[in-house]
Amino acid sequence: MGKTIDIICAGEVLIDFIGHEVNTSITRTKDYHRFLGGSPTNVAVNAARLGLKSLLVATCGQDGLGDYIVRKLNANDVITSYVRKSENEPTSIILVSKSTSTPDFIAYREADCQIEQSQIPQELLENAKIFHTTCFALSKNPARTTILASAKKAKALGLQTSIDINFSERIWPDREEAKAVLKEYLSTDPFVKLSEDDCYRLFAEAKTEDFIFEYFHGLGASTICLTKGKDGVVLSSLEHGMFHQKAMLVDEIKDTTGAGDAFWTGFLYAQLLNKNLEETITIAQKLAVLKLQNVGRLPEGINIQEYLNID
Known about the structure:
With 311 residues, the protein is α/β, with parallel strands linked by helices. 36% of the residues lie in helices and 24% in strands. A hairpin with a 3-residue loop joins β12 and β13. α1 packs across α9 and α9 packs antiparallel against α10. The longest helix is centred in the C-terminal third of the chain and has 16 residues. The protein is globular, with a radius of gyration of 18 Å. The chain starts with a strand and ends with a helix.
């Protein structure tokens, strides 16, 4: 029997309140606009926009923001059967500065980390192709324990695991604990996405590409994608070697929040289509460029598959 779910995204669902003024610190930001947020949530929504069957495993509050989240997910054709509403914790929110570089943020975390094992039953994993999560999602229990156990089950069932190592010391102050948890997750040989900023925050200092690739390959990941902003992308594969792809030109950057999630959705989408790694990176970059030119999510009223021009 064929698999009915392309991607399970497990992790944080929350509300991003993105500042209205561009390149202004949170200290000076006066007005915020509300957007559906959370890295795995963005990937789930983007994947559905690309015509994939995407499912989100997450927890929000039994409140007005939680109702908004589920309504927006349903409107975007994301499967929400495994989104739980907590009666004890309110929906998590993040205040974000609008920026053309790396945005500043303040996180108010409540329900997002309350992901229980019952939300990821074995039959769900048996019907999926990719299991994706984030460093943010692994930073707190019970979500951490749930996701690690589910990733190991997913690997045993033949799923491809995936992780965005979106590390921030403000979300996860204990770097050594973070490294230990990442080691456990990377033992499932996931596709790994991380940025230069993520690496700097995780190691508390700048590291060379050679160090980064050797470190994460050493933990068990065969395919690692390092994004370098205006300097493009470097991909290292134990099977296919290493290559660098220059950044695509962007006419006008309106908002960087979620660009990495758009990039990674494109990557996973291309891999599901069995594209080679160079084609995969091109598709991923095209989707990131589209996001950079829009505030919040990918734009309405555009056929994204036509935009990507995939054969």
